[in-house]
Amino acid sequence: MIAPARLLPEPGPPAVGLPEHISPTAAKSYLTCPLRFYFERVLNLERPVSPSLHLGKAIHAALQRFHLALWRGEDHSPEAVSGAFDEAFRGLEKDEGPIAWTAKKTRQKSREDGLRVVAAYLDSPEALAEPPRAVEVFLHEDIEGLSVPLAGAMDLVRQDLTPVDFKSAAARPDPDTAAFEHELQLVAYQLLLESATGSKPPSLELVYLVKTKTPQVIKVSVPCADERRKIRVVRMLETAVQGIAEGRFHPQPGMQCSWCSFRNECAAWIPLARQGRGDA
To answer: Could you report the per-residue pLDDT of 26-49, keeping only the tens digit for each?
Structure first.
């Protein structure tokens, strides 16, 4: 049974205006569930950080330290990268508030899992041996078909212009499913790179850091998008832009509801036009 929660205001006026820009992360969040987007990104309702999200961010920070050090010619030894992981693990606890540790996911176990995953990446064929072209590169570009600029931050860009995004996962991914699930993000990165450089990357890449007992590092290489795929992604992005601009923040029930941290607020939310009428 869902616990009662306070009623929340109607999400926005009929039109709230165009956002300053759209990112693939924001667009995917809106398209998955506009009401969750409203709670998370408009009302900024705070929630305890999950252990898996906390661990993923610390791993991401350690890999960023490795790639930046490699790019700058600084110390990128396993010891330095492990130290960067520990620093991020502690710093995120302080900066982002309490972590919702559980009996199955204690702080010490999470830290040890993260160190093993980082070590597995450094020992894998996917770890860069040469300096990257860019690390944590943020691009902000006007794209034909979009009402606002497209913005995105890429984890890594290889020397050959391949964008790389790192994903933490609990199980080994299916390559086809992974490529389909992250199509919007990957093609958005391609659009940004092509607009910024005038060149087409050779491929689009996901690197999964799998937190199994023996960690695995799995690369999923996706062919660059043709015009049909680009148009499809641009229209998806524009759908999110127009929905946000017009204040269309409705619930989108689905599988994601089972792990959504805003279920109470969602159950209590009633559109303003219906309040006081006695109908749902």
So the answer is: 999 999 999 999 999 999 888 888
- Find the angle CA(153)-CA(252)-CA(228) to the nearest 5 degrees: 50
Instruction: Dump pLDDT digits (tens) for 205-225.
Output: 999 999 998 999 999 999 999
The strand order across the sheet containing 216-222 reads 134-141, 150-157, 163-169, 204-210, 216-222
DSSP string, 177-206: HHHHHTHHHHHHHHHHHHHHHS---S-EEE
Q: How many other CB atoms are there within 10 angstroms of residue 125's CB atom?
A: 7
DSSP label of 217: E
3-class SS of residue 255 = helix
Instruction: Report helix, strand and coil shares of the chain as percent, to nearest 5.
Output: 45, 15, 40
Concatenated DSSP letters of 32-49: H-HHHHIIIIIS----PB
Q: Are strands 204-210 and 163-169 parallel, antiparallel or unpaired?
A: parallel
Query: 265: closest CA among 25, 44, 19?
Result: 44
